[in-house]
Amino acid sequence: MTSPVTLTLSGAAGQIGYALLFRVASGEMFGPDTPVRLRMLEVEGALGAAAGVALELQDVASPLLLDVDVTADPVRAFDGVDVALLVGARPRTAGMERADLLRANGAIFGPQGRAINEHAGDGVRVLVVGNPANTNALITQQHAHDVPASRFTALTRLDHNRAVAQVALQAGVRTDEVRRVAIWGNHSRTQYPDLRHAVVGGRPALEVLPAAWVEGEFIETVAQRGAAIIAARGASSVASTATAIIDQVRLRREGVPAGDWTSTGLVSDGSYGVPEGLVCSFPVTARDAAWEVVPDLHLDAFSRARIDASVAELEQERDGVRALGLI
Ligand code: NAX
């Protein structure tokens, strides 16, 4: 057994939490030899439900779960945390104004950022899943100034997986024959799923797939997939999100297979002209358990316009939280 990882999950009584935690207990996230100390963070009103999930986790009898703590106190939840998964967020409800939504999320992610800043383990990594994920990650990061900005990410691996799957279906190949897909921008409808550098069955994707599909239906399908799932299932994406979270944590720790990329929202260092400080999705690889933006990709006019549109939305969201004094 290697040394234990302390994992904190906010929103632990929610749907994604329920789909994720049992897979963590079975070793899918950190491997079969890494024990986990689990901190389940919830709001007061959901502590009973979270405690019920903790009882079920006991009943799995996993040798990997060293201890499980259920709390509504972010300070206790993030004490010594190595990997923080921020899933709990305030969803938009009918009649809610955008500013109210941002304010409600600011009230969640600001204090969580401060608790991470003060109490997290030295090597903490933070993955924000709760929507609006990029801007919630920005709020968290802005309240945790002592933690390097490179430690904060927003989940776009689900969009990445959706893009890979659509290409494989369209080309009639297995998903592991699809490489170098990229998701740029915001985890929203403006995101840009990019196949300009992708490889399908060893050949450039643009030679294999019709340009009209690549620039039209493909982008729409990936960007609208969340809405399509809700329309079909009557509920949002849950199990596929849990898979994407596991992929994201695992790939950072173990590395991305040679010749391939993944995508994640990262605090921009100015790469590809994305304003510094915005949490924007980029194609990335991982080295020494840290994300690295894939360098030197040529962006043609189509890609540039798509990326700029999504970045403009991220800037609007950032300006919105700034105007409300949330960052
Ligand atoms: P649920 O509503 O089932 O669960 C959310 C849980 O978070 C609830 O139990 C709630 O009590 C808890 N919570 C709320 N505020 C909290 C706080 N301050 N501290 C701790 N816990 C808190 O939603 P679920 O289906 O699990 O989805 C969670 C979030 O993931 C949503 O914001 C959703 O929009 C987002 N998603 C993000 C995706 C991505 O790719 N980035 C895809 C899937 C998903 O839509």
Automatic annotation (TrEMBL):
Keywords: NAD, Oxidoreductase, Tricarboxylic acid cycle. Substrate binds at residues 92, 98, 131, 162. GO terms for biological process: malate metabolic process; tricarboxylic acid cycle. InterPro entries: L-lactate/malate_DH, Lactate/malate_DH_C, Lactate/malate_DH_N, Lactate_DH/Glyco_Ohase_4_C, Malate_DH_AS, Malate_DH_type2, NAD(P)-bd_dom_sf. NAD(+) binds at residues 11-17, 105, 112, 129-131. Residues 7-145 form the Lactate/malate dehydrogenase N-terminal domain. One of its GO terms (molecular function) is L-malate dehydrogenase (NAD+) activity. It comes from the Bacteria. The keyword Oxidoreductase applies. The active site is at residue 187. Its EC number is 1.1.1.37. It catalyses: (S)-malate + NAD(+) = oxaloacetate + NADH + H(+). Residues 156-319 form the Lactate/malate dehydrogenase C-terminal domain. Belongs to the LDH/MDH superfamily. MDH type 2 family. NCBIfam families: MalateDH-SF1, PRK05442.1. Catalyzes the reversible oxidation of malate to oxaloacetate. This is Malate dehydrogenase. It comes from Serinibacter arcticus. The gene is mdh.
